[in-house]
Amino acid sequence: MLTEEQCAFFMRKGYVVLSGVMDRGACDYASAKIWSCMPDHFRHDEPKSWSGPIEDCRTTCELFHRRGHVKFQKGEKAGRIGLDPRLLSLISRNAAVTEVVRQLLGKEIETPRVRGLYSVWPMPASVTLLQLFAEKVPRPLRRISHAIRVPYLFCSPSPPHIEGHPMHIVAVGYLTDAPQNGGALLVWPGSHCDLYPQFRSTMEHLPVPGYQASFDRIARMRPVQITGKAGDVILFHHRLMHAASVHRRRNKPRHAIFVDFSSSDARDLVHQQPTADVWEHWDGLKARQSNNGSALADLKPAFWRRKQFDGLFKALRGLCGGKGKVPSGIYYVGARSRAPGDVWVLMSDDEAGFASNALETNTNRVWCRSVSAQMGSKPIGRQGGKVTPFNVRPYLEAGESILKVTNDGPPLFLRVVELSLPFHESRVLFRGAVTSETTIDIASLRDHAQAEGKGLQYA
After folding, report:
1. Rounded to whole angstroms, what are the CA distances from 112 to 92, 259, 385, 406, 447?
2. How far is Cα 194 from Cα 276, in angstroms, rounded to an integer?
3. Where are the beta strands (DSSP E) in 393-436?
């Protein structure tokens, strides 16, 4: 159980660290599971072997293009992470953790959700010109550009964010040590107090118009690294801004497990508008009075996040952007911009990946191929050579309801989802394969689903 001082710390800063609460044997087991998911040529004692394309639950690309961040949530390699008894024993069924969560929330909790195994790998000291510039290197120069290595200096921490799906508390369990500049979690202490009222739902990611200005202001402040040892667990508020740091130690990766906790009444809270009281639904904390203010006032501006550098970093990212690079700002387009009443269209090359019901673009892998989509006579859904998820609600409101998808390549897997609160209970209006050309009347599908009072389950 937490002391009064620890509870006050959590209220002010938005997080608390539970030291050494996970079994080290189970930590080693989970860490070994991450290693088993990595490419066969990755060897524990040879950091030089930690290179080449890596496939995780998001995409397939080089470590340095993804800032060293790798996520395994489910699939052939990771298996059914949420059902593995040894992984569940780390946090989900760990009495030392669940009792603290109940103490903070002051009520019973739902079954914790094991989100996945996340690792941060050391960034390389140098890369080849071919790796750095990829398809921008002319073919006649590719052999020589593969032989020339340059220092890799352009890696910055991943963009800060808050969770895009509903929960109350996020638990991060360090499976290995996380020293300073060794892949530790970054947080912006106190940001939960400012950001909590900036939403139209206490749980879902439905921001009000002023949210982005508040977010950008906080993101320019200098974050705090939460270092720790294997076996430590960090609990933080779901509206706390956080990010994964850059791993610069080059000796061993940082492995962690992420678990989400929600109170038993979370389903009802989805529909409620938050007030300025961050702890209004936390019965274990709302009676406590904290006169220390928000810890956000203690943060100082981050030198590298100044507005003057925005153009420079944007140019560097564009210059070094290669084929297969994780698209910045696109991965969570669904989770970060969705709203009740939206109708989203998602496409994928991969039937296995498409089996996921998430809106993120890890289920939207359509790259540089002969695919076109249009609503009525208007082409939609393409950014450069990539077909992205797109919201057709504006077209439906303008009277355009016919979606036409043309595919000249291998089978394409298409899904149409109508969103409602809570988002995990939204309806899938259509799910099917497109071999050449498919025409769908989305308005008719929606009317039929409303008349029937049901749709395919979206979870």
Report:
1. 6, 7, 39, 42, 36
2. 9
3. 402-407, 412-418, 427-434
Question: Cα 129–52–361 angle (5° rounding)?
Answer: 100
Mean pLDDT across the chain, nearest whole number? 81
Whether 311 maps to a domain, the answer reads no
Q: Which amino acid is at 193?
A: C
Task: Please enumerate in sequence order all residues whose Cβ is within 8 A of that of 119, keeping only pairs 6 or more positions apart, or say none.
Answer: 34, 69, 70, 183, 253, 254, 255, 256
The answer to whether residues 47 and 250 touch, using CB atoms and an 8 Å cutoff, is yes
Distance CA 245, CA 334 (A): 24
Residue 24 sits in the same domain as residue 169: yes
Helices assigned H by DSSP within 89-141: 95-105, 129-133
Beta strands in 101-177 (DSSP E): 113-120, 126-128, 149-151, 169-174
Write out the two tokens for 31.
């860490």
Are 288 and 344 in a shared domain? no
Q: Confirm if 172 and 112 have CB atoms less than 8 A apart.
A: no
- The model's pTM: 0.81
136-to-128, 246, 368, 369 alpha-carbon distances in Å: 13, 26, 16, 19
Q: Are 187 and 242 in contact (CB under 8 A)?
A: yes
Question: Whole-angstrom Cα distance, residue 281 to residue 106?
Answer: 9
> 345 in a domain, yes or no?
yes
| Pair (300, 428) in one structural domain | no
| Residue type present at position 347 | M
**Amino acid residing at 142:** R
Looking at residue 257, its pLDDT comes to: 97
Distance, in Å, from the CA atom of 324 to the CA atom of 304, rounded to the nearest integer, reads: 26
* Own/partner pairs, 325-330, CB within 8 angstroms, 24+ separation: 325/61, 325/65, 325/66, 325/134, 326/58, 326/59, 326/61, 326/65, 326/66, 327/361, 327/383, 327/386, 328/159, 329/159, 330/361, 330/383, 330/388
Same structural domain, 348 and 241:
no
**HSE-CB for 87 with a 13 A CA cutoff:** 25
Three-state DSSP state, 24:
helix
* Cα 88 to Cα 23, 114, 236, 276, distances in angstroms: 11, 7, 19, 35
Low-confidence stretches of the chain (pLDDT beneath 50): 303-304, 321-333, 361-364, 367-368, 383-385, 455-459
Q: Are residues 66 and 192 in the same domain?
A: yes
